[in-house]
Design a protein that fits this description.
The chain contains four helices and eight strands. By secondary structure, it is α+β, with helices and mostly antiparallel strands. The strands form two sheets. Strands 5-4-3-8-7-6 form a six-stranded antiparallel β-sheet. A two-stranded antiparallel ribbon has the order 1-2. α1 (23-48) packs antiparallel against α2. The longest helix is centred in the N-terminal third of the chain and has 26 residues, at 23-48. The two termini are 36 Å apart.
Length: 180
């Protein structure tokens, strides 16, 4: 807020007033807008599955993963099911951005022993977030799984049915590290 102070001839020579830093308010507004866009996207995606013919299910799931991936800026998005009887996780569906190699064929029946920490976090209903895979210890079993896939950052959100963890939705950043 301010106004120009003018001399006797009406020519401005100084500004007088005050200013307020509205950075926090703008960031809160942007976060709220982003949350609203995500809610709209999730509602659109969920309505897609009402009365969906089973022969279109896999194609529709991949399309939904792509919409989520583009929304959050991920390079690869996938679904994993936990098979507690076999003690493995299975990649059931995957979407990749253009130029990103798929990993679905190489990630079938991943033993729980390779991702024990991951499973423990998910069973609590919590997400696994790794902002920088290279920051993990070179001996870390998660790094041994993620690094060969070119993953730089990752977010894995559990799929819960009440207190039971059925699997997870994963978001990979391959081209660059990404803050989820």
């Amino acid at each position: 807020r301010g106004s120009a102070i003018k001399n006797g001839e009406g020519v401005p020579y100084r500004m007088a007033g005050s200013h307020t830093d509205i950075t926090d308010r703008k960031q809160a507004e942007e976060a709220l807008q982003s949350q609203s866009r995500l809610q709209r996207l999730l509602m659109e995606i969920s309505s897609t599955y009402i009365n969906l013919p089973l022969d279109r299910l896999d194609e529709t799931i991949r399309s939904s993963l792509g919409e989520l991936g583009e929304f959050v800026g991920a390079d690869r998005v996938y679904l994993f099911d936990y098979d507690y009887n076999k003690q493995v996780s299975v990649n059931t569906h995957e979407w990749c951005a253009e130029g990103i190699p798929p990993q679905i064929e190489d990630l079938q029946e991943v033993p729980f022993s390779m991702t024990r920490e991951w499973l423990e976090v998910h069973r609590k209903g919590e997400a696994m977030y790794i902002p920088d895979v290279n920051a993990l210890s070179p001996s870390d079993s998660l790094r041994a799984v993620l690094e060969p896939q070119g993953i730089k950052s990752l977010l894995a959100v559990p799929m819960m049915d009440g207190d039971d963890c059925l699997g997870f939705v994963g978001f990979d950043s391959v081209r660059r590290r990404h803050s989820y």
